Amino acid sequence: MSTRDERLVRWRLLLGNASEAALDARAGLTADDMAADAALGWLYERGGDLADRDIRDRQGGLGGSALSVPDWLSEVHRLFPKETIERIEQDAVEKYQIHEVVTNPEVLARIEPNEALLRAVLLTKHLMNPEVLAMARELVAKVVKQLMEKLARTVKTSFHGRRSRLRSRLKIAKNFDARSTIRKNLGTYDPALRKLFIRTPLFVSRTRNHMDRWQIILLVDESGSMMSSVIHSAVTAACLWGLPSTKTHLCIFDTEVVDLTDRVTDPVEVLMKVQLGGGTDIGKAVGYAQGLVENPRRTIVVLVTDFFEGGSDYVLVSRVKALCDQGTIVLGLAALDEQANPSFDRDLARRLTQVGAHVGAMTPGQLVGFIAEKVRA
Fold first, then answer.
1. Which of 130, 144, 220, 250 has its CA 20 to 30 A from that of 331?
2. Intervals of the chain under pLDDT 50
């Protein structure tokens, strides 16, 4: 019996059945290694045509029996670490379009919520019956909660008040200045007892930076290529909502504009209302934003789009110029997600920068930091 070689096992799983003759005997595959190879082969060793992807009838290699999606998913969760599971599930729904991963209630009941599956739900929710849609909504809610908790920490750091160094007579725990107190009382340290006796506790006052109220208008392109940005825009708007220094609007658009500001506190509801795909009229969305502006010099318009304009380029550029000329900050984001890898019409984006817009790609945390910097200026 051959000894298991971890390095060769990894190569065997990477190369698939093509390396079976050369590596199986030398690698010393275990039963779980063979099961992992079969699970990977079920997904990655399939034909190029969608018509060939009848996943319920394909032979998975596990005991020679047909492997259903729930069975396959169970094997994936048993055999691989979390990071690998997420990548495999993402490839299943995004690369190979195995929609049953998010439309089968049995699968949804056991699947680990993550952003890739959230995107899959948004793409396939029109295929779901009411029972499955309710389960999918729960998945969306769990992922959104994770994203909001993460971003909320950045919002708190960026916008909330800081402690000043002024001494305070209000002796409460949250104002206690431990570092200064220790330094002040070093003379009362008893080496024998190894204790520091505090005779003069010090406290500091807390102040909040005064900020004039700003308007933040998020215009979000709901075309299919912007899916991740739509998700993070909804989460960002919800986190910004209610800050004493800002008034937040959230609008999504294709060839029409839908104002979802009244639902901004419920990003799950926002996302379940999004209809991905269709045409794009960016100029119309910017025109809608113009009508929302109350104080031009206290407004930031965040335009989240790939800049592939289906309407008039001239109208879009002229409306962005009008906003910039009146003192409004226009921030065009070709991507708003954790990767911030943009794919966009660079020529149109360049024309917008020439009339005063800022164009780039950001993570949600970077956007929050940008807004906080402008608000505090």
1. 144
2. 1, 49-65, 162-163, 208-211
The 10 Å CB-count burial string (b at 16+, else e) for 174-193 is ebebeebbeeebeeeeeeee
Q: Which residues contact 297 (CB under 8 A, 6 or more apart)?
A: 326, 327, 328
Last residue of a domain, one of 207, 224, 244: 207
Q: Do 267 and 244 fall within a single domain?
A: yes
CA distance 289 to 259: 10
Q: How far is CA 3 from CA 15, 24, 25, in A?
A: 20, 11, 9
- Domain of 222, in residue numbers: 214-376
In a domain, 116, yes or no: no
In sequence order, the 6+-apart residues with CB closer than 8 A to the CB of 36 are 13, 79, 80
Same-domain check for residues 199 and 262 = no
Residue 171 sits in the same domain as residue 314: no
To the nearest 10°, the Cα dihedral for 341, 246, 372, 145?
Answer: -50
Q: How many domains does the chain fold into?
A: 3
- For residue 176, what are the β-bridge partners? 203
CB-facing half-sphere around the CA of 45: CA atoms within 13 A: 17
Report pLDDT digits (tens) over 168-193. Answer: 666 777 778 888 888 888 888 888 88
Residue 328 shares a structural domain with residue 289:
yes
pLDDT of residue 209: 47
If phi over 0 gives left and psi between -120 and 50 gives alpha, with beta otherwise, what is residue 33?
alpha
Q: Tokens standing for 70?
A: 């729930």
Same domain (yes/no): 196, 290: no
| Model pLDDT for residues 49-102, shown as the tens digit of each residue | 444 444 433 333 333 345 677 778 778 878 888 778 878 887 887 788 777 777
Give domain status of residue 119, yes or no: no
